[in-house]
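[recover] target loaded
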C-alpha cells in the first residue's frame, strides 16, 4: 500500500491524528459509519447523468439517490453547490453551465 493510498484512506475514514495515533473525532464517534468513496458509489448506483443548464439530473438505482447525494455533498466538489435527492434521482446545482458539464464529465469518467 502506497503513501497516497494510505493518506486517502485516512481522509475517507475522517481519522484525526492524536497523541496515541489515529482515531475518529469524538463528535464522529456517535454519528455512524463513514460513506464509501464517491467513485465506488457512482460505479455501483449511478445509471445516467444529464446536464440541464447549470443543473445535473443524476438517475440512480431505486433507493440509492440519498447516499450518493450525501457523498457528493461530503466530498465538496467545487463544481457542485449542493444537491437534492429523492429515491432514484439527484438534482445537483452547479454555479453555471460550464461547471455542470465539467461535473457531468467527471461522473461519466467514473462510470467508464
Amino acid at each position: 500500500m502506497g503513501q497516497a493510498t494510505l493518506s486517502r484512506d485516512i481522509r475517507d475514514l475522517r481519522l484525526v491524528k492524536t497523541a496515541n495515533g489515529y482515531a475518529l473525532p469524538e463528535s464522529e464517534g456517535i454519528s455512524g459509519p463513514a460513506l464509501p468513496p464517491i467513485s465506488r458509489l457512482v460505479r455501483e448506483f449511478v445509471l445516467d447523468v444529464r446536464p440541464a443548464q447549470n443543473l445535473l439530473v443524476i438517475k440512480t438505482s431505486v433507493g440509492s439517490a440519498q447516499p450518493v447525494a450525501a457523498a457528493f455533498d461530503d466530498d465538496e466538489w467545487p463544481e457542485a453547490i449542493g444537491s437534492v435527492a429523492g429515491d432514484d434521482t439527484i438534482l445537483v446545482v452547479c454555479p453555471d453551465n460550464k461547471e455542470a458539464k465539467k461535473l457531468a464529465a467527471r461522473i461519466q469518467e467514473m462510470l467508464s
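[recover] notes: The first strand starts at residue 16 and ends at 18.
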